[in-house]
Design brief:
This protein has helices spanning about 5-15, 25-35, 35-75, 85-95, 100-120, 140-145, 145-155, 190, 325-335, 360-365, and strands at about 130-135, 135, 170-180, 185, 200, 205-215, 220-225, 240, 250-255, 265-275, 285, 300, 305-315, 320-325, 370-375. It is α+β, with helices and mostly antiparallel strands. It folds into two domains: about 5-120; about 130-375, Thrombin, subunit H, CATH 2.40.10. Strands 9-10-11-14-13-12 form a six-stranded antiparallel β-barrel. A six-stranded antiparallel barrel has the order 3-4-7-6-5-15. The longest helix is centred in the first third of the chain and has 39 residues, at about 35-75. About 30% of the residues are buried.
Length: about 375
């Protein structure tokens, strides 16, 4: 690469890190990272560099603040400025204001942890054979028997597929659910992180194109958006997204697509623990039937509020299923809203189906849950 290209690539990396790319640019760049190890490593290194620069700036501010405190104390006659020079000044202020220093040290520690988390999130992760993600690998015979083509032929009120459009051959299938009526959906990051194209399917025989607008691998949350002229927006959703953690033993239920057919499967259980696999604080443990294909599916409480996103199960324990806590949906949304294209995104925490029995709740909910397929 020549100098001009180096500068252009570095500029693109910095815009990517700062979240200044539009959705199409970001998707293209993320695909480039997957196929080019040099670009991926450059993102890691430059992110760490920017973090270190920020920490250096904060340290400089801290030193300036110490000097200002010293000057102020000297002017008040509380210390003898002439007797405190160089390192002695810092030692004195450290002893006198060690609580403040402890807070500063905590901030530095948190920054270090944040950097470690960042590296973890953009580096390949070792798999744990005791934890199985709940996305479903699309079987070869499913394609061979033209099930995909059958789905296409059954589409209602959908435009005909263009002759020159590439064939969509999915590799994974899972579940997702709408978080507002404009087509914004939630699924797991592990479901769509390697997909170039995404389609979502409902039980009415409709399918829609979608794309990733926010990917959070650390929390395993992805926001995708339906981008299809045939999709009809809704004024509101019957369920809300809870900001709170549910209580142990609280009844819960799920809806998802663990089968090849686009058919809902209902699951019922209860909240088992407020932490996940090996004490993971991002998730909670629920006791409920779950199989490959349930990844990204919503977990509802008795009030019809989403309290989690189904993610994984423990292979050595019967019924030990894990869900990302719903409060992290709001974290992903807040990050997404930093992009001017999505700053108006709104999500409701209120459920309009509280008080209904489960049969009626499911009837109200089912039209807003989709099978998610990625190639």
């Amino acid at each position: 690469m020549n100098e001009k290209n180096d500068i252009m690539i570095l500029d693109a990396v910095e815009r990517y890190i700062r979240g200044e790319m539009n959705p199409d640019e970001r998707l293209h760049f993320e695909n480039l990272r997957k196929t080019n190890s040099e670009i991926d490593q450059l993102v890691v290194e430059h992110t760490l560099f920017l973090q270190q620069m920020n920490r250096f700036g904060e340290w400089q501010k801290f030193r300036t603040a110490l000097n200002e405190v010293h000057t102020d104390l000297a002017e008040q006659g509380k210390i003898n400025s002439d007797q405190l020079k160089g390192k002695a000044k810092v030692v004195y202020l450290w002893k006198r204001y060690r609580k403040v220093a402890a807070i500063a040290a905590s901030i530095a520690g948190i920054t270090a942890i944040s950097i470690s988390t960042l590296v973890w999130s953009i580096s390949p992760q070792p798999s744990d054979d005791k934890l199985k993600m709940l996305d479903r690998k699309v079987l070869a015979q499913e394609v061979a028997t033209n099930k995909i083509q059958k789905d296409l032929n059954n589409v209602k009120n959908n435009v005909e597929k263009k002759a020159d459009a590439p064939a969509f051959v999915p590799k994974t299938a899972a579940t997702g659910f709408l978080i507002n009526g404009r087509g914004f959906m939630i699924t797991n990051a592990h479901v769509v992180k390697k997909s170039e194209h995404i389609r979502v399917f409902n039980t009415k025989g409709e399918q829609f194109n979608a794309f990733v607008v926010r990917l959070d691998p650390v929390r395993d949350v992805a926001i995708i958006k339906i981008d299809d002229p045939q999709f009809k927006t809704a004024a509101s959703l019957p369920y809300g997204i809870s900001k709170n953690t549910s209580d142990i033993a609280e009844p819960v239920f799920t809806l998802g697509f663990p089968r090849e057919e686009v058919v809902y499967v209902y699951g019922e259980g209860y909240m088992s623990a407020n932490s996940g696999f090996k004490g993971d604080t991002l998730s909670c443990q629920i006791t409920v039937p779950a199989n490959p294909g349930n990844s990204g599916g919503p977990v509802f409480n008795r009030n019809g509020e989403v309290i989690g996103i189904l993610s994984a199960r423990e292979t050595d324990a019967e019924g030990a299923v894990f869900a990302i806590q719903s409060k992290y949906i709001y974290k992903a949304i807040e990050e997404l809203k930093k992009n001017k294209y999505y700053e108006g995104l709104k999500v409701s925490s209120k459920s309009t189906i509280s008080g209904l029995d489960k049969v009626q709740q499911v009837k109200k909910i089912q039209d807003y849950i989709y099978m998610v397929k990625g190639d």
